[in-house]
Amino acid sequence: LKDGQLVDLTSHFQGERRVAREFVVRPYDIPPRCAATYFPEANVLVPLGSTAEKSNTPASKSVVITIAPSTPA
Asked: pLDDT per residue over 49-70, tens digit each?
């Protein structure tokens, strides 16, 4: 990954894939193998079937994703 590169983010949950296209890579001091995004721009990545036990709200604090160079939509 390079600063300024456009990437597509894909979330993976129980066989469902959700894609957020054309996010811009920016280096930031976070743990390895982690990513940070802004919301609501990344809401599309949150799987509808993944909810918190007590509140039943979408579980957006931990979403498994892959990152790949952007491809035309």
From this structure: 888 888 888 888 889 999 999 9
Q: Where are the strands (E) in 1-73, listed by range?
A: 6-13, 16-24, 65-69
Q: Indicate the pTM of the whole model.
A: 0.85
**Residues 62-65: contacts with CB under 8 Å, at least 24 apart:** 63/11, 63/13, 64/11, 64/12, 64/13, 65/9, 65/10, 65/11, 65/12, 65/35
Distance of CA 38 to the CA centre of its chain: 9
Residue pair 67/22 in contact (Cβ under 8 Å)? The answer is no
For 15, residues 6+ apart whose C-beta sits below 8 A from its C-beta are: none
Whether 48 contacts 14, CB under 8 Å:
no
Instruction: Note the residue count of the chain.
Output: 73
Distance CA 36, CA 4 (A): 15
